Amino acid sequence: MGLRQKINDSLKEAMREKDATRLSTLRLINAAIKDQDINARAKGNAEGVDDTEVLAILGKMVKQRQESARAYEEGGRLELAEKEQSEIAVIEAFLPRKLSDDEVVKAIDAAISETGADSIRDMGKVMGALKSKYTGQMDFGSVGPEVKARLS
Q1: What is the pLDDT of residues 24-46, one digit of tens each?
Q2: Domains defined for the chain, CATH in brackets
């Protein structure tokens, strides 16, 4: 079963259970996916986005909500921060589990050896390999400096 189907099934389930928070978050997810589908069709891709791109969309949504929650907490708006956290929980249910620190190190080492990277100029190849295999499983913002350190 594809990721889109899982999201749609969860949407129907949230409707039946009258879970307003989950329902609104799932509708936001569907809207973001449909928006990217439209962009993909405009570029000539008739099928729209695939599961890998959907994972990237979900990862971006989580990151946006984390930043918003942090801003709300700093501003003393705890009820809004809690709402963002509950949306994060709903979105993360569709993401693959995050890799542990040891698994991230092993993945970086494997990507470096696969691409034959030996200098900082090859960082793009390594990051591309990691993104193709581990989208949604690691935070590429923190992985980038790690890759850079290994290639230096």
Answers
A1: 999 999 999 999 989 888 888 77
A2: 3-92 (1.10.1510.10), 101-151 (1.10.10.410)
